[in-house]
Amino acid sequence: MSAQGRIVLDVRGLTIGLAHAGRARPLVDDLSFEVAEGEMLAFVGESGSGKSLTAAAIFGLLPFGVRRLAGSIHLHDTVLTALPEPALRARRGRDMGLVFQNPLTALNPSRGIRAQIAETYRVHRGGTRRAAQKRLRALLTEVGLAHAADGPETYPHQLSGGMRQRAMIAMALVCDPTLLIADEPTTALDVVVQAQILDLLARLRRERGLAVVFITHDLALAASRADRILVLYAGRGIEEGRAADFFEAPRHPYSRALRDAVPPLHGHGGRLAEIPGLPPGPGALPAGCRFAPRCPNARDDCRQNEPAMRRTEPRFACFHPCPEAP
Ligand SMILES: Nc1ncnc2c1ncn2[C@@H]1O[C@H](COP(=O)(O)OP(=O)(O)OP(=O)(O)O)[C@@H](O)[C@H]1O
Ligand code: SF4
Ligand SMILES: [Mg+2]
User: Fold this and answer.
1) Residues with Cβ within 6 A of ligand 1?
2) Is the C-beta atom of 302 inside 6 A of ligand 2?
3) Where are the domains of the chain?
4) CA 309 – ligand 2 centroid, Å
5) pLDDT per residue over 148-200, tens digit each?
6) Could you identify the atom of ligand 2 that is nearest to the CA of residue 238?
7) Domain at 7-95+175-316: CATH architecture
8) Which of its termini does the chain have fewer beta carbons within 10 Å around, N or C?
């Protein structure tokens, strides 16, 4: 799948559902993907497609009442899904960093950002206060928050949206993890700040071999920044491919519609709201292919069986894909 370095994250058959779901469909259904050293994989999908739950499952942070029902998650040689909670907690923050969709949920509003980031470092890495301060100073400079490294503490509410995201990224990176999952890290930011943050992630991938999962609604942004794109629809992976090729001819009708919804010149902001209809809710899955009610290519067989993701390239899950030519 990946032409890059060794595999950092390997997710197989991940299935997530409500603990007491009855006959409701899983929220994430048989999802598999991998991310290599230095690589960026983008998850693209509309609201509710399961992007954040997948990130939460990797970190062992699924919300109350939601469970991993099947599947395995490997980080290098460690089977995360076999670890007891204390061991998983030790890996979190140290080997893998998470930038949350909303930084205010992750930053403690009543504590200064230096204190919060340094504490994360000392909890996972130990060492002296002086060592933590040194690491903190280098890191704040690296993420463009050098002004917060000295003088009076800076509190989250004193920072702009972009600066808060940088503080979150600093917190996620302070222990030098090998994997970073960034859940919509730039959605609320203006285009210039968005570009700065993505440039920062690109540099960390190059310099440290950081593996990144970048979660976004924005296909054009994903195509311009990631190595590979995984499109999710109603909890399923429905197409995966090299970002460089993705705009040319996505094969799954949903990906094609997503691509066509992006304004010309690959401008940002293409959204599935422009495709007629809505994705099915968890309790209302149609028989057969879950995209059938919205699909221009749907035929009778689509309403009987659910297509599986092809194991070889090109990878998509569809009985009647769009033609190879654009
Ligand atoms: N705590 C929860 N309890 C019950 N259902 C949940 C919970 N969290 C998420 N879900 C459901 O799981 C599905 C996937 O949610 P998820 O948050 O992963 O979507 P997402 O792709 O991240 O969407 P968005 O783009 O809006 O952030 C949705 O149907 C959502 O309603
Ligand atoms: S399997 Fe059929 S309904 Fe589903 S996306 Fe492909 S053509 Fe459309
Ligand atoms: Mg989300």
Assistant:
1) 18, 27, 45, 47-53, 63, 65-66, 101, 282
2) yes
3) 7-95+175-316, 106-174
4) 12
5) 888 899 999 998 888 888 899 899 988 889 999 999 887 767 787 788 889 98
6) 5
7) 3-Layer(aba) Sandwich (3.40)
8) C
